[in-house]
Amino acid sequence: MRLKEGTTFEQVLTLYRFDKKLRILLFNEIEKIEVAIRSVLANIGCQELGDKYWITKAEYFANAEKFNQTLAVIEKELASSKEDYIEDFRRNYIESYPPAWMITEVLSFGNLNYIYSNIASNRLMKHIADYFSLKPQVFTSWLTVLANLRNMCCHHARIWNRDFMLNPAEPRKISNAWIETSRIDKKKLFYRLCIIRYFLVSVSPNNNFDFKLADLLSRFPSIDLTAMGFCQDWKNEPLWK
Length: 241
Fold this sequence. Notes:
The protein is mostly helical. Helices cover 56% and strands 0% of the residues.
């Protein structure tokens, strides 16, 4: 490994500490988005289809192979779950599977996106994405990006100056506050911070993610924001005001 000339151990340690605190912050914020998406997916699906068991029925999904893969995951998670509400369901109900709002609670963020992307009804996909004022294609892309980032945070991967492999879809028309993306690298972290901020504004308008992020950056003034993809006047973007 080669280090830049003049690099000190303290500088390396500072970067490590910053990355650790950043991962913790993002993991906690993505968790809030994940909870909202679980709720929206289950509830709108039940309302639209009139079937509380829709997630475990092949008729509601476009690709049978993807559905069978998802059902196998559901069965595995239910079999290993020790949650009180799952065990209560097993004791008191004769149905093979719990209703959708229970099932979404035992699935990973990635599994939720897998279910959403396989829904056969374009109307249902649109209604779910509409909750966040997004088109289904963008919604699916952003869920994939956040699931990937969440896993990196969970497994202690470096994220602060990473070039991410996934390229998020760009919304063409968007009713909520967004950013001017012509000068932003979509493979850098800042674009993902904007996606997190966008979702949080939708599900929790009074969230303080902007304050917590700015506070973290202020405590590590030596961090190169350009390496993270920040634009110079990012705080003046409508999304971050």
